[in-house]
Amino acid sequence: MTITIYHNPDCGTSRNTLAMIRQSGEEPEVIEYLKTPPSREKLKELIAAMGTTPRDLLRRKGTPYEELGLDYPKWTDEDLIGFMLEHPILINRPIVVTPKGTKLCRPSETVLDILPNPDIGPFTKDDGEVVIDASGRRVR
C-alpha cells in the first residue's frame, strides 16, 4: 500500500500528520514539496482528487500571497497553479494521498479519515493537544 505526503518539515501540522501516518503502521513516501515541487499535471491531479480549487489550496500565511495580489478574482485557476509552481510555499500543506482518498490535512487529525488503519492509539500533537486519548477515542 502506498501513502504519499507532500510535506514541509518546518510545519507543525505537517509533522503531526506524518507522525500519525507512521503511528498507523505505514511508512509513507515523503515528498518535501518545497525542494521537489509537483509538476503542473500532478498539482492539477491532486487538486481534482481533493475536490477543491486552486484558490482554496493557496496558503496565505508566510507566503508572497499578498505581495502577488492573489486575492484578486482576475487570476484564473491556471494562473494560480502557475504561481504555486513558481512559489511552492503557496501550496497549502500537508497533502496526503492514500488508497482511501486525497486530502489537505488541516487540521492534522483529518488524515485519520483517509488512513487504511485509523486506529492509531493515543496521540498528542507537538503542541500538547490530545487528538486521541488513552482509551483510543478521538477528542473533539
What would you say this structure looks like, in words?
The structure is a single chain. The chain is an alpha+beta fold. The protein folds into 2 domains: 1-33 and 93-140, Glutaredoxin (3-Layer(aba) Sandwich), CATH 3.40.30.10; 39-92, 3-Layer(aba) Sandwich (Glutaredoxin). Helix content is 26%, strand content 15%. The protein is built from 4 helices and 6 strands. It has helices at residues 12-23, 40-50, 54-57, 77-86, and strands spanning 4-7, 29-32, 95-98, 101-104, 123-124, 130-132. It has a 4-stranded mixed β-sheet with strand order 2-1-3-4. It is elongated, with a radius of gyration of 16 Å. The two termini are 29 Å apart.
Task: Provide a concise account of the structure shown.
The protein has 140 residues and is α+β, with helices and mostly antiparallel strands. Helices cover 26% and strands 15% of the residues. It is elongated.
Notable characteristics:
Glutaredoxin, 140 residues, 6 strands, two-stranded antiparallel sheet, elongated, four-stranded mixed beta sheet, 15% strand
Say how many strands there are: 6
What is the gyration radius calculated from CA atoms? Answer: 16 Å
What general outline do the C-alpha atoms trace? elongated
Q: What percent strand?
A: 15-25%
CATH topology of the largest domain: Glutaredoxin
Trace the largest sheet across and list its strands: 2-1-3-4
CATH architecture of the largest domain: 3-Layer(aba) Sandwich
Q: From the helix content, strand content and strand pairing, which structural class follows? A: alpha+beta
Distance between the termini: 29 Å
Helix fraction, binned, reads 25-40%
Number of domains: 2
| Uncertain stretches of 5 or more adjacent residues | none
Contiguous helical run count: 4
According to CATH, the homologous superfamily of the largest domain is Glutaredoxin
